[in-house]
Specification:
about 120 residues, alpha+beta, about 15% helix, globular
């Protein structure tokens, strides 16, 4: 019997930044019963800023939530596979596949971050 041990080296970038995330419905393919193009979800640290949030959908948030902490701490959109080039904008898509699979539609979200003071 062989025992294999793997050592995984992960590039860790020191993070001392905090960002506010503005998640905007950029494009809707099919029919979304929740979002209109331009609707926003605003996140600051661990909370959703309800006064600045237009709509909220559990299905859409399911595809966004795993990225919230990393993005709000300054991890690269490009390294996470959410953008082609470095910057403070990335993209995710709602998990609803839309017609012909469901009666809904999928939403493409732009996530933009702003440094918190």
């Amino acid at each position: 019997m062989y025992i294999v041990r793997a050592i995984i080296l992960w590039k860790v970038t020191p993070v001392d930044k905090s960002y506010r995330l503005i998640i905007t419905a950029k494009e809707i393919r099919g029919k979304c019963p929740v979002f209109n193009v331009g609707d926003k979800i605003v996140v600051e640290k661990p909370k959703i800023v309800l006064k600045e949030t237009d709509a909220f959908c559990i299905h859409a948030f399911g595809s966004i939530i795993s990225m919230i902490t990393a993005l709000s701490r300054g991890i690269s959109f490009k390294e996470l596979g959410l953008a082609k080039k470095e910057g403070d904008v990335g993209y995710v898509q709602c998990i609803d596949p839309g017609v012909p699979y469901t009666d809904g539609g999928t939403v493409i979200f732009e996530i933009r971050r702003e440094k918190l003071r």
